[in-house]
Protein 1
Amino acid sequence: MTAGTDEVLSFDEAMEKYDPVLGFEVHVELNTKTKMFSSAPNAFGDVPNTNVTPVDLGLPGVLPVVNGVAVESAIKIGLALNCSIAEKCYFARKNYFYPDTPKNFQTSQFEDPIAHDGFLDIELTDGTVFRVEIERAHMEEDAGKLTHMGGSTGRIQGAEFSLVDYNRAGVPLIEIVTKPIEGAGSRAPELAKAYVAAIREIVKNLGVSDARMERGNVRCDANVSLRPHGRETFGTRTETKNVNSLRAVEHAVRYEIQRHAAVLDTGTPILQETRHWHEDTRSTTSGRPKSDADDYRYFPEPDLVPVVTNEAWIEKLRAELPEPPAERRKRLQADWGYSDAEFRDVVNAGVMSSIEDTIAAGVSAAVARKWWMGEISRRAKLADVEPAELGVSPELIVELNALIESGKINDKLSRDVLDGVLAGEGTPAEVVEKRGLAVVSDDGPLLEAIDGALAAQPDVADKIRGGKVQAVGAIVGGVMKATRGQADAGRVRELILERLGVEG
Amino acid sequence: MAEINRDDVAHLAKLAHIDMTDEELDRMAGELAVIVDSIKTVSEVAGDDVPATSHPIPLSNVFREDVVGDTLSNEEALLGAPDNADGRFKVPAILDGE
């Protein structure tokens, strides 16, 4: 590949001279059971060309029929994006020749999308809220999957032939298009990432998409143009296609800003074209210039009748909408009393819902956070899974916490208890019993261990006697070691000071 | 509507991936012009108050339940394909397009 050969300006320098304008087209695959216009299964990862009907293959004489659930999902997305819902809208044929559609057209919507003129308030990491205007959200169908064979691996260039799987052809898609986004300045890359993250979160929260970017459930085309500061008219834009991770969206926008700036600095106009994103080199390469082939000759789809909405239907769907993610976060943070930083960490760790459930099961917000952000996150990281996938139930945390609060076990022992429970050894109480993990609270064995620890570190003992109370930690450590962690550290500290006749 | 001229036909032929000789382009331009003229007479009757119609029957909201139905087997799906490999349709590598 010839990736990364373009000149780029430093991001700071680009920002000094130019003002970026962004625009996004995000495609969301719906998680309906069947396709948009046929009753073939909408499923990922099946044997190629088995989730197909004659409709999906565009065989002669077939008649597509609209999936009613997909229409309702589209309306819900529109409502969640604060859009107006069209009273009447049509499907249209977008004509082009490419083997990813066997029909030689994609069924889409053209002049009258089902949802239009909305907005989404995007919160950046420092709390700044940026409003992105939504131009439209329309219904269409996904294309088949092409695998380019021969030549270099998987790339179009040099390929000798392509293999086509139409399992994905006809999967319901909602394309969400923004209006030009102005005024983001140097926060443009961050905003790009946050916008796509917000869309993903909304469609997942609505339950209308699995929203797994690694499976292509949410895909982003990012438009970038630059104009000198103070100029009203937009510069020429490029469209970077299929940027399919949140990190890549941020990097692609940043890269295109830097590349545009370098081109404009030489006095050369920007070529209006599509660009391909390369994750390995974190750069884009030239795709296809805008040409006559972009004349899609849209016309109304004669096989599909219009979709007509009414207020009762829309209000019924509106009533079914879940609490918007941003509002939910605000409510939970206020309820739990977490600081902004604490709450952000919780969100980023993906444990907000787990904490909510755990608090509902009966522990304090602080205890729920301690478990999910501490021990459970640590284990999830080691196992390379999501914390929620470890099988730790809210009830288990409540039981463990009750054992700690009753003084039966301490924090350190609770981890062993968790091990036992996850290994199927029974309830926390049973594991404590079977493994003999209860805290040693009888002072007799503790005093024995303390005497041993003091004898082992006479110099430390002297320091403490001399008033350096903070040195007691070394003795406590020795005692904990001797009791294999089964002592109550607070009690041990008290006993050591008593033993040495020092005030704590 | 503007008349259909030879350049329009050449453009459409290119979009449709149809090779046409000069002679064919000339003939088609003439024939299409007649058709367009004929259709134009509709606009003499239908004024601005008549919305464009794509469906002759006033139906709307014909929806299907989201229930999985019969599908083709992989063999059936590939029956009409000129060529296939690995259970997939085999096509020449094409550089342009989406």
Protein 2
Amino acid sequence: MDALYNLFNVLNNVFVNIAIAIRSLFADPHSVWANLTMDVINFIIVVIIVVLAALILILLERKIAGWTSQRTGPNRLGPRGWFQTIADALKLMGKEDITPAGADKFIFKIAPMIIFSLPMMTLAVIPYGKGMAPLDLDLGIFYFVAISSISTLAFIMAGWGSNNKYSLLGAMRAVAQMVSYEIPLLFSLLGVVMITQSFNLGVIVEAQAGLPFIVLQPLAFGIFLIAGLAELNRAPFDLVEADQEVVAGPFTEYTGLRWGLFFLGEYGNMTALAALGATVFLGGWQGPIFLPGFVWFFMKTGVIIFFMMWVRWTFPRIRIDHLMHLAWKVLLPLSILNILLTGLGIYIYRLVMGG
Amino acid sequence: MGTVVFFVFAILAVASAWGVVTSKNIMHSALYLALSFSGVAVLYVLMNADYLAAVQLLIYTGGIAIMVVFAIMLTLRGEISDSNPENGVWGWGAIISVLMFLMIALVVLTNTDWRVLPTPWTSGGSASDISLLLLTKFMIPFEAVAILLTMALVGAVVLAKGVKVSK
């Protein structure tokens, strides 16, 4: 039993110990150069997480699409079709890179890069395990929301730079939708911040040792999921790229790897949002001892991602006026109500406990 | 290390501000403005005002810049590549800038109280400090600004939609 417990301890701390070992290569383990080396290594790890997540999720999405609509999904390439994404990526790389004649060239070219770079910045503050946050920011949640709000601008740049009616329409929809849903998203996270008195994601995870915040904040979790789906522009909120209405929205004119960058960015953002949800509401790396912390974390993230995909292939697309109605007249009042109830709860708790 | 980062982002902020006023395409001006806001946000981080930096990104880069871009899209007519002809008027611009600079320089240099020693902020996260100040010492200005903004918002909606005349 003791040996087993030791094994789990080793597994739990394997990455932290590797980091300490790398630091100990320097004469002073906390010098500027040691910090810089660790930052570079952390950055590379985050990039690998984004790319791997995109590779796996694209295939997973098609498998789940097959499962929900009762067809087989990709099943030809490799064992049970698991190499399909590699073939897709190769195909994308081989395509011609077209820039439309009337396009605003620089804006057109830089927009997909911005979209792809944002999930790398947001995933950097997530604690993947005990002491395993690449960047331990005091303002974790706030930083996350601030960075992800920039993606709206990238959508405008893509839509405007393409010089295409449908792209511009899609970009306008993106702005209307993402600016509206940002507010309930941020407000739904505030309840947890009020309970823990901290924006730091590490502190929030530590506070969930007893019970995850989904038990205390079920309303906030629901709002977070809905607003998060809308922020990601995924069905049933995929008005931005609604194929039947605006061809493919801001992505209409993009070809080859530039379009692929948008796709990678979308899945990267999805991973980031699911990771945030798992961290804030589902307890992050906290879990029963029989699995290491990072395994728990990725399992919880996976559950949220699966839920998002399941929703996408279940519900029809919502109409644009209904979308705005939902954001401003339903989700926003509910999230403010949640903040009020949380404040009352904290007040009563302190009154009773005498804190 | 801090000095290098400061100069990289200070130059970025100033250069993109230069781009805002000299760009012929007003859409590019608006996007340069967003870049300038982001550069200023990094300068806030270097001054240990993390919260302010995040707010700068969230409100200015993610909100105001988008509103500016939208306003441009809705009011634009004619050819976009030559949509900002006013920035050719260099003489008046230079005079106004020099006067502005002189005025600010006079105020800063004659008032020694403006010089705050550049000591790093040490006590805890800046978010809790700001919220404490906003809800105690600066409560009334904070609420006044909130009411002012709400009134501006209502006014904008009324101006845009018009009011039904009641009989």
